[in-house]
Description:
alpha+beta, 7 helices
Amino acid sequence: MLFHHQLTVLTLSLITAYVVAIGIARWTRSKGPLSIYSQDGGSLEAVGLSLLSDLGNNAPRVLQNGFVELRPTWGMRLGAPVAALVFMANVDFGPLLMSLGIHDGNLQLTIYTFTSLVFAYSWIMLMFFQRVIFDEDRVISLGIDLRRQERELSDLTDIRMHESRPALVLRFGKQAPLYLPKFLSHRDTFVTRMQAIIDDNLNNGVVPPMPKLRDRLGL
């Protein structure tokens, strides 16, 4: 009887896990391709992480020149450094570095220090400098790339989630793509406004660009 009881529990557990995975996958698909959950698949952990990262929206800030400023969510700004610290504390880079032929202790320490500085720099930019500024004609990205990124919206043709990175991608007829934070405060308002501009541009004859090699590779 004990074996049959264990087998029944195992079977019910597998069935429950399968049903939950199917339910989560359908739920994420129902949110649409631009949802923060669209990259989470059927993973309950990924959905939970996205939910936490999206908490704490800042109210849009209207600037004097008519631009609207959006910042990353507080869930992302406070959660990212915690995740980075947990990652650094629990991952042993020693075997990896040694497999790459790096045995010198001073060199390993230099690599650890450089990696920590990269995490620190990324968190400072996320916490204090990252923002998206836009009006009816332009969109500006600050603190994401090393340099300020600005695009005219007159030939905006598409907005989508990146295939592999946590980013919104704006694509233009004649300008380079623009990458924006996935977890952006009041992103629904921003996405809706960008989609309205896209529809207007396409109705007025703006031609979407042909996919480039980096697009086909998902870079």
